[in-house]
## 1
Amino acid sequence: MRTLEGVVRPYAWGSRTAIASLRGKAVPSPHPEAELWFGAHPAGPAICLPTDGVPDTDLLSAIDADRVGMLGEHTVEAFDGRLPFLMKVLAAEEPLSLQAHPSSEQAREGFDRENAQGLPFDAADRNYRDPWHKPELIVAITDFEALAGFRDPQTTVELLRDLQVSELDPYLGMLAGQPDSEGLRALFTTWLTLPDASIATLVPAVLGGAVDLLGAGSSRFAAELRTVLELGEVYPRDPGVLASLLLNRIHLEPGDGLYLPAGNLHAYLHGTGVEIMANSDNVLRGGLTPKHIDVPELLRVLDFTPAAVEDITPPIRMVGAERVYLTPAPEFRLSRVELDGTGLVYASSICFDMPGPQILAVLSGSVEVRSMGGVVTTVPAGQAVWIGDAEPDVVVHAASSRAVFFRARVPVGTGS
Ligand SMILES: [Zn+2]
């Protein structure tokens, strides 16, 4: 068992308050803080704080020094001796790029192809930095806004009609004439490959239509329209602004989850959440970013099947105080546990006895983690604790009147 200090990623879209206040630091932070990583990713492994004469190290080095003891045989064999997930606190003050992630097959094929082309691993125009897929799950801590999955095309036709922008007519016609995944593919492809001159007239026309429709009041698409305006303000010449019209505009309440499987086009807009993903860097971007964009490669991996919001909302199973988000990714299982230090409303403690690697990240209050060997660690909000395969039996007590932590682990078998 090791107490973990997360690694802050200072991306420009981050918040100056959310992660700093979670970690008990001065607010606002001097720079935006976008993500707090709890994992063993080579680009930012968590720090293992010193305990009982064991010096500090990082989680990647600690795992590499004792793979079977830390991960267990199942995880070592199934995932090449790596911790297969990365858990983060993500705090978005501004929208992130429009993106999708490849399937395992696409990632392997793309990685081999770019290797054969001789592209260096750190090249800016490299799409595939490793041969793995990157399914993602985010669970909201605050209200959380996102775009994810293609909306039912019939509803999108109604949105485009309501805008009453004559420049949109040919595109509206494409989707109205074929309101299905092929129509979505055709329209998305057309928009992402429009010449700059066409984008320069179409985006302002759409923004003008959105202003007028919002001004008229009572549009059922008010949230969608406000999002288009926000994106257009930051990226006035970006076809991603148009693409946002095709996606579900999703609002998550605290505790709600969103699962993004391979091929799902998505963009986080605003809010703080806990995100868990397979330990991969494979991102294909379609816009709303100054980073590398590869439209043909994005089109190869995108799934244009319309997705209802229910389709990408993971089922939840309550196991006592533990709220488990059931997703099909073999790399991770995420759950949220709320303990009540008074024991009056909820349980004040919870036992875990499952093998395999686990990270418990405390988001509110503090907890005391006790191993069967008698080791006791107190973990405050903003820190996490690592539990290795060799020490699976732990009891977690609330050390404050209310304590919330997220538990990340590797699922064992089916449904566990
Ligand atoms: Zn993503």
Note: The mean pLDDT is 94.
## 2
Amino acid sequence: MKREHPDGGRYAQYLEQAALAFGLNVACGIEVLGLEPQGEGFVLRTDRGEIGADFVIWACGQFGTPSDGGLIGAELARHYAAVGRWQDVPGDEVFVIGGYESGIDAAIGLARAGKRATVLERGAPWQDGDKDPSRALSPFTRQRLAPALKGGAITLVEGAEAIALEAEPGGIRILAGDGRSWLSAHAPILATGFASGTGPVSDWFDYNESGLPLLTPQDESTELPGLFLVGPEVSHNGHLFCFIYKFRQRFAVVARAIAGRLGAETAALEAYRANNMYLDDLACCDADQCLC
Ligand SMILES: Cc1cc2nc3c(=O)[nH]c(=O)nc-3n(C[C@H](O)[C@H](O)[C@H](O)COP(=O)(O)OP(=O)(O)OC[C@H]3O[C@@H](n4cnc5c(N)ncnc54)[C@H](O)[C@@H]3O)c2cc1C
């Protein structure tokens, strides 16, 4: 692609080329609705009928499962994931609830579309000095935020815990837990995160108190051997792998586990280790040692 941060169209082209180059068997337009163990493997239930599999790697991400964060009256707002183009959002002044990656991305998108955005956030992730971007705003987002802030199109309000939305004649009132409130002329944008994307197979995972799937050291379901998880919900001992450059370091771990059971050659996976793309020793994930 010869560029960093390609747009969606270019990235889709890249994926198409990668699938062709590696001869991947990709079937589009099939929704997996659930799965059942069958014999030594699985049968996947889909909207196009059943498909058999020896192993299943669940890689459905979270973007398809937006969360309203339990906000009362959330139906009066519009989730970040439901916005196609920021210029189509009604109004010149838009409130965004939540100020982590999607909230700041929304504010930047709105500012670039010539609107003013006010971000209401319970903490202040744009100030957080944590070097783990699973917990603080990523450098790329900060880099994009700085010029938009200078231009005055974005206002960041920290310590604003939105708890409810109420319709009133002038628009939608956003109520905060500390008694403050803001009147939004149009539906505010909810940037309150995403729920687990494991819904269709949730019977086959156990979850910790944070709602994250419990996994073996090979990122396999603790409930159903042969069902693996890759992507932003992978976590181990409180270490989050929700960023792409972190969770992709676990792909070779899953590949080795499956290859081992198939009796397949695994020498090719050493290239991942040689390129720091094989993370099986999680000691380096400790807060003061994180090298990511
Ligand atoms: C605003 C924002 C900013 C972000 N910034 C960064 C960043 O700077 N750096 C970073 O590393 N990460 C970032 N992330 C996180 C990153 O985008 C995600 O973690 C990543 O896209 C997840 O990739 P994935 O392939 O696992 O899932 P996805 O990209 O969500 O892909 C999942 C695929 O599975 C398909 N699917 C879902 N359910 C089913 C089903 N039942 N049957 C069949 N197919 C299904 C979907 O259609 C989709 O194509 C950001 C996320 C957001 C929202």
Note: Residues 65 and 273 are 33 Å apart (CA to CA).
